[in-house]
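Structure, all two chains, one model.
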Amino acid sequence: MADEFIKGLGIFTASGLGWMVLAGWYRTPSFASEQQLVSPVELSDSATMFDTLGVMLMDALFWFTIIGALTFWVVIPAIRQAREALEERAQ
Amino acid sequence: MTDEESTTDDVRADGSGIVAPDDETPTWRERKERTQGLSQLTYEYFERSRREDQDLRQESDYVERDVLAFPTWPHEIIRNLAIASFFVGMLLFLSATLPPHIGDPANPSSTPAIILPDWYLYWSFGLLKLGPLNPELSILGGEKLMSDRMYGVLANVVVVGFIAIVPFLNKGSARRPVEQPLWSAIGVGGVIFALTISVYSAKNLLPMNVKLAFDLTFLLPIVGGFITWAVLKTMREGYMYDLNRRYYRLRPPK
């Protein structure tokens, strides 16, 4: 259990950090604004392929943060519990 | 006269003199019988620590001391270096990737719309707004004994004074909150009060009824403290006070 927790926490913090940095680049017009990290993505005309990749990576990291943590904190323990319950019932 | 009795009086500096009395030391069998749930976890945790300590003592050429601790080098230094490296790395990473914009300079000729101290002083700022608690005394013909401002300043003195005398009221012999539920509850209540009074300090910005906020400021700490007290009281059952205390008296059983 503890292992699963730290795996989930590692994913949550590491990929969350990556998402925060990229969202700070592409979704934050100003650190004084009221819409930080969540304002619509703005890619200027001079955006390179790397900027496009960065936006894709940002979205990927966002969902990885949520789904990855939920997987280790909720889904895998739930599957194990269910399997144990099924085995107990079979006996 | 046994050996034990003859050696109880003189102080030995090699650390061997603080063994728990034999009749209080659990046998290996007693320890291993704790095979369930929290007591098993507690047992394994202390047993591992105790075992590490024993190995360290037996293998090392350190001079044994009365106080059980790990040597600064390498244990503490390595750990602290790892932690310090992590935070320095995080500072470098964040300052390289997310450099904050430098804001406009403050305009000294205009008063800002929102006046607040730094966030860690919100609690004190909130205590200055305790006017509703300042009683109008009928003996003074409905006058207040002191102005609301004075009352707020005195409230700061009271809170700081209470925090200052806590170490004299409670010497800190508990190792875990369960061991002293009442003091844990007081602590939790104090933390919640720090939060609620901080929120109340910005009452003109709160999107809620100010009187309700004022009541919640004092009710929430009491509720939180009571819940803490109740939960810890419940947890006392099954908590192994003796094992914990014995560990801090130190020494492996025979």
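Chain B touches chain A through six residues (CB under 8 Å).
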